[in-house]
Amino acid sequence: MKYLDSVIKESLRMYPPAVETARFCSADTTITSASGDIVFPKGSDILIPIMGLHYDPQYWEDPNKFNPDRFNEDNQRKIQHFTYMPFGAGPRMCIGERLALLEMKMALVHLLARFELLASARSPYPARFQACFNLTPEGGFWCRARPRPPRPLGQQRPSEAGELPAPA
Ligand code: HEM
């Protein structure tokens, strides 16, 4: 489960469904940074480039490489705040983060218990995306699912032993 968590987090780094988020500045605000004060006048619209931050080589070594180990227990602690934010950040961050992560894990556990998931020639690699607000793969996202052979009695997975609901 820990590695699945790392895989999902790394997938959300490379392919964040929300590529950017925004804030409206309701009062004059000054942020102090290492390179000096940054002043945001009242009324400013601020776009926060989530995907840009996720690929910034200043914060991520070899950012184009899919490497779930960035999110293992040791490395996760080293990630600089606000450089990884697939669910946004602060008081208006995604309210559904925990539900979304749980749903993804449940779906993958059920799928992987029954099928081997393989790349499909219908989806190009590297992936291509449509120009829109959300990260949407061009032509949809396709993969192949090969049923796993049943294991001998006594070595069955919970799905095969009938402890999980059968796939619809
Ligand atoms: C992979 C799945 C999801 C991703 C990547 C995602 C991402 C985001 C992001 C980036 C924001 C903006 C946060 C900010 O500006 O700081 C947001 C807001 C929000 N999300 Fe999600 N979300 C996901 C799933 C969900 C689910 C499952 C729900 C509800 C069940 C949900 C409900 C909301 C709501 C209500 C807001 C607005 C929060 C506010 O403005 O206070 N999201 N989400």
From TrEMBL:
Subcellular location: Endoplasmic reticulum membrane; Microsome membrane
Coiled coil residues, start to end: none
InterPro entries per the UniProt record, alphabetical: Cyt_P450, Cyt_P450_CS, Cyt_P450_E_grp-I, Cyt_P450_sf, Insect_CytP450_Detox
PROSITE patterns named in the record: CYTOCHROME_P450
Start and end residues of each stretch annotated as Disordered: 146-168
GO molecular function: heme binding; iron ion binding; monooxygenase activity; oxidoreductase activity, acting on paired donors, with incorporation or reduction of molecular oxygen
Pfam families: p450
One of the record's GO cellular component terms: endoplasmic reticulum membrane
Binding site for heme: 94
Membrane topology: Peripheral membrane protein
Protein keywords: Endoplasmic reticulum, Heme, Iron, Membrane, Metal-binding, Microsome, Monooxygenase, Oxidoreductase
Major place of residence: endoplasmic reticulum
Keyword Cytoplasm attached: no
Cofactor(s), by name: heme
Top-level division of the source organism's lineage: Eukaryota
SUPFAM superfamilies, alphabetized: Cytochrome P450 (SSF48264)
Protein family membership: Belongs to the cytochrome P450 family.
Descriptive protein name: Cytochrome P450
Organism for this UniProt entry: Gryllus longicercus
